[in-house]
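PROTOCOL LOG
Step 1. Enter all chains and additional molecules of the complex.
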Amino acid sequence: MGLEYYLVLSTLLFTIGVIGVLVRRNAIIIFMCIELMLNAANLAFVAISRSLGEPNGQVFVFFVMTVAAAEVAIGLAIIVSVFKHRQTINVDEVNSLKG
Amino acid sequence: MNAEQICFIIFGLISLSGAIAVICFRNPIYSALALIVTFFSQAGLFILLGAPFVAAAQVIVYAGAIMVLFLFVIMLLNLGTLSTRTNIGGKMKGFAIFLGILFAIEGIYIAFKATGDSGVAREPVETKDIGKLLFSEYLLPFEVTSLILLAALIGIIALVKREKSNT
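Step 2. Run joint prediction.
Step 3. Record the structure below.
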């Protein structure tokens, strides 16, 4: 399999994540779409690492996973506290920071 | 078509359809389950690429820990019964999808233009090499990673604690 097929698949997954963030208004679904995008980046990292025959790409995947785990934990804690205050997690209704 | 190509097509189709299901389902629980399917098929793709360490980490960290967290929060907040109007309007939605397709075309163009004929044909990287690299060249980022996790831990405790004293 050529490298370009993996990159195309990674691009498509990333695009689906972007569309999800733009279209959905549910904060939890938006978070899932961010995970989707991080995973697409991971796929590109691993494919290029294999293509170049170097392990550096896989080390970066390790770092991306750590950041994703921390981000999800913090983000979900924020969502829970927003829900406790506002009784909603629709990002259009949570607009008290709007200038 | 050899076995690798067939496996790539199967895993690729499963992960793409799972990803589309994530953004199409109305109920967040179904979205989370579709996301788990996507993560598992991506682990399969990592195996195909000769990266068993990343595949194992994918299953344990993403499909295991992160998705359990998601499902836990969805069930804690009982989101299945919330208002169903969770999408934006028709015109904006069409524009968002148009932008997404434009982005995808760009990415595909770059993928075919930039890679040329450098196929995925070299020897796969051994997990041993990743470990060596992680503890020599990337030692400082590795330690900073632990700081990130510590900061996340403290941040969550602070968030939840302040919440408790308010109510």
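Step 4. Note key features.
Chain B touches chain A through 85 residues (CB under 8 Å).
The longest helix of chain B spans residues 139-166.
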